[in-house]
C-alpha cells in the first residue's frame, strides 16, 4: 500500500490547485463562481508575504487532494486561529484517509502556531462531510450566521468609508 504524504504547495502546483478548485466547485454546484486564474494564485499563495497557504496531499507521486488555509484571530481567546478555506479530495481517491490526513496535518500546524481554534465551513447539504467532521469530534457552530459581501454591495459600502483628512 502506498502511503500518503502532505507537503506545502509550491508555485509549480498552480495548475493543480486550480484543477482541485474547479473539481470542488463542481461538487458544490458552483462551478460558474470560480474566477481564480494562475495570476490570482501566484499573487496570493506565492507572493513575498503570503496571507494564505496551500497543502498538497499525495498518494505516492499522485496528487489526490489539497487544502488552503489562513490564520485569523480571536479577540476572546487572545490567540490566532487557523481557518480552513478549502479541503478537497478527488472522488476516485476518497476512502484512503487523505481527508483525515489533511485535517490532522492542519491541526498540527494550528498547534505549532499556538492557535486556539481550527475552524471551517461546510454546506448544509453535504452530509458525507458533516458526518466525517462529526466523527472526528468537530462541533458545528449553529448559533452563528455567516455573512458575505461581494461585488457591488462591497464596493458601495467601501465608498462610504471616511476619507482621512490630509495633513
Concise synopsis of the structure shown:
The protein is of the alpha+beta class and about 170 residues long. About 35% of the residues lie in helices and about 25% in strands.
Molecular structure report:
With 167 residues, the protein is of the alpha+beta class. The protein contains 5 helices and 5 strands; from the N terminus they run E-H-H-E-E-E-H-E-H-H. It has helices at residues 14-27, 38-45, 98-112, 127-135, 151-159, and strands at residues 4-8, 52-59, 62-74, 79-89, 117-120. Strands 1-2-3-4-5 form a 5-stranded mixed sheet. The longest helix is centred in the middle third of the chain and has 15 residues, at 98-112. The mean pLDDT is 95.
Terminal CA distance reads 67 Å
Task: Write down the overall mean pLDDT.
Answer: 95
Structural class, please? Answer: alpha+beta
Extended strand count: 5
Widest sheet: strand ordering: 1-2-3-4-5
Note the overall shape: globular
Proportion of β residues? 15-25%
Count of helices? 5
Helix share, percent: 25-40%
What does the main sheet amount to?
A: 5 strands, mixed
**Low-pLDDT segments, ≥5 res:** none
Indicate the radius of gyration in whole angstroms.
18 Å
- Following the backbone from N to C, one meets helices and strands in this order, namely EHHEEEHEHH
Amino acid at each position: 500500500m502506498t502511503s500518503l504524504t502532505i507537503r506545502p504547495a509550491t508555485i509549480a502546483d498552480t495548475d493543480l490547485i486550480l484543477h482541485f478548485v474547479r473539481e470542488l466547485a463542481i461538487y458544490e454546484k458552483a462551478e460558474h463562481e470560480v474566477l481564480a486564474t494562475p495570476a490570482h494564485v501566484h499573487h496570493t499563495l506565492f507572493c513575498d508575504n503570503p496571507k494564505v497557504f496551500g497543502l498538497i496531499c499525495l498518494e505516492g507521486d499522485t496528487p489526490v487532494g489539497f487544502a488552503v488555509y489562513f490564520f485569523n484571530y480571536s479577540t476572546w481567546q487572545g490567540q490566532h486561529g487557523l481557518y480552513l478555506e478549502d479541503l478537497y479530495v478527488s472522488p476516485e481517491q476518497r476512502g484512503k484517509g487523505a481527508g483525515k490526513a489533511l485535517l490532522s496535518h492542519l491541526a498540527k500546524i494550528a498547534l505549532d502556531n499556538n492557535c486556539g481554534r481550527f475552524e471551517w465551513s461546510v454546506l448544509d447539504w453535504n452530509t458525507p462531510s458533516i458526518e466525517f467532521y462529526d466523527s472526528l469530534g468537530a462541533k458545528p457552530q449553529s448559533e452563528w450566521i455567516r455573512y458575505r459581501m461581494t461585488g457591488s454591495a462591497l464596493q458601495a459600502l467601501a465608498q462610504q468609508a471616511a476619507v482621512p483628512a490630509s495633513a
